[in-house]
Amino acid sequence: MTLHVSATTEIHASSETVLRFVLDLEAYRQADHKITRVSSVDGPDEDGHGSARVWGKLPGLPPAPDRQDFTLERWTSLTLVGAPRQPGRLLFDFVGSFECTPLDSGATSVTHSYEFTFRRPFRWLERRMAADLTDEIESEVDRLAEILDTRTHPDSSS
Hints:
The protein is an alpha+beta fold. It has one domain (2-148): START domain (Alpha-D-Glucose-1,6-Bisphosphate, Chain A, domain 4, 2-Layer Sandwich), CATH 3.30.530.20. It has helices at residues 15-23, 25-28, 124-148, and strands spanning 2-11, 35-42, 49-56, 64-73, 77-82, 92-102, 108-118. The protein starts with a strand and ends in a 10-residue tail after the last helix. The mean pLDDT is 94.
């Protein structure tokens, strides 16, 4: 079974500013409270590929180490995929994404999504986590907008 949640917000900052902030995972923890610790970030390289080692916490589960491989399409999207042979892959596969669309107003429409595909016998976790993760992703994009919005933080680059 697959759990898919997403949220969209308008951020008064450029798509480059948004995606650079997301890739600064230590800073991004301000918006994403599921990240409990960042061990390392490598990349993106010239082709936009990289990886990050983090500790994350999902509702009802203990914190666990994970590696996310990512692909940055400069400066329109970022896709993170749970790397193989990580503790979390015993429970689920993961894909997260950020899609940025510049708006005529100078703002950026940002859609953030998570997709968890639970393995047997852990598929019951989908029902347990669905509401919490829906609430969390909506709060996450709201926090992201508040942090980066140049209307409330005029010194932010856009």
